[in-house]
Amino acid sequence: MKKTVLITGGAGFIGSHVVRLFVNKYPDYLIINLDKLTYAGNLENLKDIENKPNYRFVKADIVSADQMLQIFNQFRFDGIIHLAAESHVDRSISRPMDFIYTNIIGTTNLLNMALGQWKNNFQDKVFYHISTDEVFGSLGQEGFFTEQSAYDPRSPYSASKASSDHMVKAYHNTYGLPVLISNCSNNYGPNQFPEKLIPLAINNILNQKPIPVYGKGENVRDWLYVEDHAQAIDIIFHHGKKGETYNIGGNNEWKNIDLIRLLCRIMDRKLGKPEGDSERLITFVKDRAGHDLRYAIDATKLKKELGWQPAHTFETGLERTVEWYLLNRKWLENVLTGEYEKYYERQYQHR
Ligand code: NAD
Ligand code: TYD
Fold first, then answer.
1. % helix / strand / coil in the chain, to the nearest 5?
2. Which residues line ligand 1 (CB under 6 A)?
3. Which of 155, 160, 206, 226 is deepest in the core (most CB within 10 A)?
4. Which class for 229: exposed (0-12), middle (13-18), buried (19 or more C-beta within 10 A)?
5. How confident is the model at residue 72 (pLDDT cuts 50, 70, 90)?
6. Can you give the residue ranges of every domain in the chain?
């Protein structure tokens, strides 16, 4: 094998798309998918590639230095693409410590392992940390986040991701570890856990349940189709300049309420229902605490320096996403059990 690449969090939403892309596109790379399989990790996401000869799955917790040491003793990695994280803002508000452990301590553990394994021989090695635009805080009506924007995280989730970004940068500055960081806007697409806005709304429409819109639905997010993010990760991993940060975004801003209305129209059409049928499910609920108003990414650097362009428009991406959820109702059913149901009740009972 030409390279051995560790991908953490590969059973999650974005990670599974990255694992699939790498396993299929690089048959001469050995891809190790390391995942704890929390509520968000689902190996069903990878059924189509699980028997490929260049793929292995390892169940482990990045917070455990012992478990990480065992894995780093077993494999010699050329590259690490680190996606494992607690990723949902609402959960970070109710259980911040999970985010501190996984996102900060887990990331630092991995940095130590990489440093230990590569022992100053950094030739052709890279530690690539996947982060979010939420580290930059909240925008007003105008402006965009660039790579120069100051960090101003405002939720326990974004603060934990900002901390992990800082640790990655510190290991580069202090020890010379070859690192890359990318900060991406909101992703959507197949396999996203139905606690995030788009799959949650699709699932509720399918089950004729209220669609909870926080506050007045005026908050703005910049949406990117998950496969476009995976493509960007591939390009940055292979061509990014060590020590640099790249912003990734679709230049695709939507107010939550407008997005939900568009989604309702697509769902009505696909389900053969009269237009307006799903919109009546929209229910305004109590706002999220500290709800960031607007995120918007300026991805000029990535486009200019590395030639990345998103391949999907929002309209085609959203159609594909809805089609996937309609065709994969069993996937939805399987994840909508146990822990998730309990979480859902806790999250929405007072709203
Ligand atoms: P996700 O919640 O769907 O998946 C996270 C994965 O990490 C799961 O498979 C989970 O089992 C695993 N994991 C969690 N804790 C772990 C631990 N302690 N040890 C090992 N594995 C663990 O998340 P996602 O939406 O796919 O996000 C992936 C990464 O991309 C995260 O780092 C997130 O911050 C970042 N990101 C996400 C978005 C987005 O819109 N979803 C946008 C920008 C950046
Ligand atoms: P989410 O998918 O949780 O992503 P993030 O908070 O990381 O941006 O939420 C996207 C937007 O949708 C955000 O402004 C919060 C809002 N939202 C709702 O209005 N209702 C919901 O039930 C959820 C989960 C989110």
1. 45, 20, 35
2. 8-9, 11-15, 35-38, 40-41, 61-63, 83-87, 102, 106, 130, 132, 161, 184, 186-187, 193
3. 160
4. buried
5. very high
6. 3-191+224-252+293-312
pLDDT digits (tens, 9 = 90+) for 34-65: 999 999 999 999 999 999 999 999 999 999 99
pLDDT class for 120, splitting at 50, 70, 90? confident
The strand pair at 253-255 and 211-214 is best described as: unpaired
SS3 5: strand
Region label for 143, one of left (φ > 0), alpha (ψ between -120 and 50) or beta (otherwise): left
**Closest to 282 (Cα-Cα) out of 230, 236, 331, 215:** 215
Instruction: For residues 329-338, give the mean pLDDT.
Output: 87
Q: Give the integer Cα–Cα distance in Å for 184 and 220.
A: 15
Q: Is 227 a catalytic residue?
A: no
Rounded distance from Cα 44 to ligand 2 centre (Å): 25
The fold for domain 3-191+224-252+293-312 equals Rossmann fold (3.40.50)
Active site residue 134: yes
- CB-side neighbour CA atoms (13 Å) of 263: 28
Does 133 qualify as catalytic in the annotation?
A: yes
Identity of residue 146: T
| pLDDT confidence band for 340 (50 / 70 / 90) | low
Is-above-0.90 flag for pTM? yes
Q: Are strands 29-35 and 220-225 parallel, antiparallel or unpaired?
A: unpaired
Q: For residues 275-302, give the mean pLDDT.
A: 97
Of all residues in the chain, the percent with pLDDT exceeding 90 is 94
